[in-house]
Write a structure and sequence with these properties.
The chain is an alpha+beta fold and 131 residues long. It contains 2 helices and 8 strands.
Amino acid sequence: MHSDRRLRRLVADGTEYRWTVRHRHTAGEACREVLTLYRAGVPTRIVFRAGEGRIVSGGAYWHSGLVATAGGDPLNLHEPRVVRAFVDEARQLGVLPGPAELDGWELYPAVVVRCAAAATPGAPPGCPPGP
């Protein structure tokens, strides 16, 4: 079993990022999964809070790093291809690099599409997942 405490390395278009995934609890708040990207030591946190129709791993039935909507489309934040999709989406929106905390659910739909498109190379860009 690997340690989720170490920083992993990702190179996207020649730019190096370090990243980690953590499960967090704060008194009075819902569970959350936090994907933290570091570029030149500057952190950008992509936060997924549990809520109505939004699932984050809680340890009992889900693996660490899982985020999903009630309708499906689970993403594993420990997979480099998923992290790369978040990096690409955040860069496209102009929020990377920068010390910021982003709502991961706002990026989620576009990342699901990116991951599905990457899994089916014959699909045209922007094509939604599914049959």
